[in-house]
């Protein structure tokens, strides 16, 4: 895997973030990652093919919502909560509360027995 590009906080745009959050699977991934734990891609559970999950994770990374780190052959993902809070104060919390209220992304989770880092 080549080195992933992560936008600088000043490069994160509202329209990019909102576009990335326009899919329920991606909202579910953000909900899972909102606990602040770094997760291995293999720990994530979603009702999509691995290639589709990889696409969703790339969309979140490209929009500046997540940071991806490679360790050997494994990839790990972390929500960029502080960067998002600095750039758009309160936005992430509002999205998470609304997603919880409407149960958006409920089908996304962590595999049973997955250890968090």
Automatic annotation (TrEMBL):
Domain HTH arsR-type: 6-99
Keywords for this protein: DNA-binding, Transcription, Transcription regulation
Keyword Chaperone: no
SUPFAM superfamilies: Winged helix' DNA-binding domain
Keyword Transcription belongs to the record: yes
InterPro entries: ArsR-like_HTH, HTH_ArsR_DNA-bd_dom, HTH_MetalResp_TranReg, WH-like_DNA-bd_sf, WH_DNA-bd_sf
UniProt-listed PROSITE patterns: HTH_ARSR_2
Protein name: ArsR/SmtB family transcription factor
Species annotation: Nonomuraea marmarensis
């Amino acid at each position: 895997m080549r080195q992933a590009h992560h936008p600088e906080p000043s490069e994160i745009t509202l329209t990019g973030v909102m576009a990335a959050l326009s899919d329920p699977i991606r909202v579910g991934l953000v909900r899972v990652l909102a606990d602040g734990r770094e997760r291995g891609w293999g720990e994530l559970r979603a009702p999509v093919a691995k290639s589709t999950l990889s696409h969703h994770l790339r969309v979140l990374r490209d929009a500046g919502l997540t940071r991806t780190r490679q360790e050997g052959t494994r990839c790990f993902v972390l929500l960029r909560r502080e960067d998002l809070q600095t750039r758009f104060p309160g936005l992430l919390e509002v999205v998470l509360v609304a997603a919880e209220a409407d149960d958006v992304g409920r089908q996304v989770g962590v595999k049973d027995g997955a250890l968090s880092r």
